[in-house]
Design goal:
β6 and β7 form a beta hairpin. The protein has two domains: 131 residues, Porin (Beta Barrel); 133 residues, Cupredoxins -  blue copper proteins (Immunoglobulin-like, Sandwich), CATH 2.60.40.420. The protein contains two helices and 20 strands. With 310 residues, the protein is mostly beta strands.
């Protein structure tokens, strides 16, 4: 009897964690990142699973906004699945999220997913969702449990000076061509210190090949690429090919720069909205993701009623 009461209490607490009066209003034509991790479970084993998706919201009908998943991946242990044909919906002004469709494994086989997320908590710039659902491969059906963060992409605020607006400048780091930012172990401490200063406090510490590896701008914006490396570089846009490690990108023709000599710079203009994956064809580990969408300030995350101490 006592164990039954304890189990019932746990179920009530767990239900209160997900079923709350949280809400999040989302707008049309906006870009988001959905990032998180959790577990994929069958009767025989448990696998670690990660989710990293870039999505763009579409038309709104009533309290529902459709969205398209433009890019990203889902993992099961060491196996990686890339976006094939995924779509979803923000439901009840963002209180819930539904994702359905297909992802593609490294061997080319389609795998279906069906996820449903509930808003748990939020801050002024992001929200936490709890996801459950299924990943169905040709061999198994996994029940998934995720904790994820949904965030809008940071906007580039420009200030007017005379006629022209200030442009965003991206710098190619010295040593990027050799897949390292420093020439010797002695210099590594200084490079790490500079990387720490250049990144926000909530970013994972890593040494980048560009001064920023994710940017968000509006259609028609121009950015400047400055080559601080000791060799020449060029920048193309394309689709990442996860299957072929020797040729990891396929150019799409939207962005193509001339050779950027050491110490020189070039400008890139993003004419159309969408997701751009920029890379150097000679050094494919050097890449940037650009999210190009009209500015929108109407995303607002609401308040929850499940705070501690209430």
């Amino acid at each position: 009897m006592k164990s039954s009461i304890t189990l019932l209490a746990l179920l009530v607490i767990f239900s209160g964690y997900f079923i709350n009066e949280s809400y999040a209003e989302v707008s049309e034509n906006q870009a988001f990142l959905l990032e998180g991790s959790g577990f994929a479970v069958t009767e025989e084993f448990i696998k670690i699973s990660e989710i990293d998706l870039g999505l763009s919201s579409q038309q709104q009908r009533g309290s529902t906004i459709n969205f398209v998943i433009e890019d990203g991946f889902i993992t099961l242990n060491d196996e990686e699945f890339v976006v094939s044909d995924l779509e979803g919906k923000f439901l009840r002004e963002g209180r819930y999220i539904r994702i359905n469709g297909n992802i593609e494994s490294s061997n080319g086989f389609d795998t279906s997913i069906s996820f449903f997320g509930r808003l748990v908590e939020e801050s002024k710039d992001a929200a936490v969702y709890g996801f459950t659902g299924r990943i169905t491969t040709s061999d198994d059906s996994y029940k998934v449990i995720y904790t994820t963060k949904l965030s809008t992409l940071s906007k580039i605020n420009t200030t007017s000076e005379s006629v022209q607006d200030e442009q965003l400048t991206i710098r190619i780091a010295r040593g990027s061509s050799s897949q390292g930012l420093v020439d010797s172990y002695i210099d590594a401490g200084q490079a790490r210190q500079e990387a720490t200063i250049s990144q926000s406090s909530d970013s994972a510490l890593r040494l980048r090949y560009f001064s920023m590896d994710r940017i968000s701008v509006e259609p028609g914006s121009t950015i400047t690429i400055v080559n601080d490396d000791v060799v020449s570089h060029s920048v193309l846009s394309g689709k990442e090919n996860y299957v072929d490690r020797h040729d990891p990108f396929t150019a799409d023709g939207r962005i193509l720069t001339e050779e950027i000599l050491p110490g020189e710079s070039t400008n890139i203009t993003f004419g159309d909205a969408g997701f751009y994956r920029l890379y150097d064809p000679d050094y494919p580990w050097m890449k940037i993701v650009a999210y190009v969408f009209p500015s929108s300030d109407s995303l607002t995350f609401g308040t929850t009623n499940n705070q501690q101490g209430n």
